[in-house]
């Protein structure tokens, strides 16, 4: 589930702001329970338990189903991500470039893999040859299990411009045939051949439909990812504002006409759970792969 700081997310925050409801969620994480079973375990009346369950259901955290004569509760989500507004830096000029996910310039991938456009899959799934199909340029989502996909970003900075900071923003998830909401994968980010760091994606999500994912995409396949922002400065790198690695701008040697960006699931990764990249028209963030170059 994706939340933000808008009023639309208040219902979920309010549902979580209760020790009783948190206890209910913990119990439901182990097994499905009826109202009567929950009431007995928590030493509460069925009326009180049902009131709390209804609040959790209204927030989209649980759902009910009938099992015989019993009304059984079960979890609807297994994780929640909160998206905070990104801070805008005004001290520097900024050059922003968006590259669609299908505009990769190099790749080496292994199935399961594929590409999807606004109206259908592009070519045949699980056949890496279609990653060279000219129609790949219209892809809004790509996925693979092992290997890499590489992009070239233009470097428009003039000779007298000094690069102060670089941001790379994209929506990512793991890759599992159909979907698996708990499927960790170690994804390595590299810029100009220098590894910035590894991020472990927690899963390949289909608990809810992606906000922008086309209706033709089945409910049981990847629906959305997590928006990640890698920031490289002169004193190290950060992921979503937290220290990431010691890689700095000097390590990237950005002095040519292009900047090479690679997303990779290495053969020797601890969690080889694949990678899915969501672009415009897919996922929860209607954006392509975005690079911002802050300069003075």
UniProtKB/TrEMBL annotation:
<keyword id="KW-0238">DNA-binding</keyword>
<dbReference type="Pfam" id="PF01022">
    <property type="entry name" value="HTH_5"/>
</dbReference>
<dbReference type="InterPro" id="IPR051081">
    <property type="entry name" value="HTH_MetalResp_TranReg"/>
</dbReference>
<feature type="domain" description="HTH arsR-type">
    <location>
        <begin position="1"/>
        <end position="95"/>
    </location>
</feature>
<dbReference type="InterPro" id="IPR036390">
    <property type="entry name" value="WH_DNA-bd_sf"/>
</dbReference>
<dbReference type="InterPro" id="IPR001845">
    <property type="entry name" value="HTH_ArsR_DNA-bd_dom"/>
</dbReference>
<dbReference type="InterPro" id="IPR036388">
    <property type="entry name" value="WH-like_DNA-bd_sf"/>
</dbReference>
<dbReference type="GO" id="GO:0003677">
    <property type="term" value="F:DNA binding"/>
</dbReference>
<keyword id="KW-0805">Transcription regulation</keyword>
<keyword id="KW-0804">Transcription</keyword>
<dbReference type="InterPro" id="IPR011991">
    <property type="entry name" value="ArsR-like_HTH"/>
</dbReference>
<dbReference type="GO" id="GO:0003700">
    <property type="term" value="F:DNA-binding transcription factor activity"/>
</dbReference>
<protein>
    <submittedName>
        <fullName>ArsR family transcriptional regulator</fullName>
    </submittedName>
</protein>
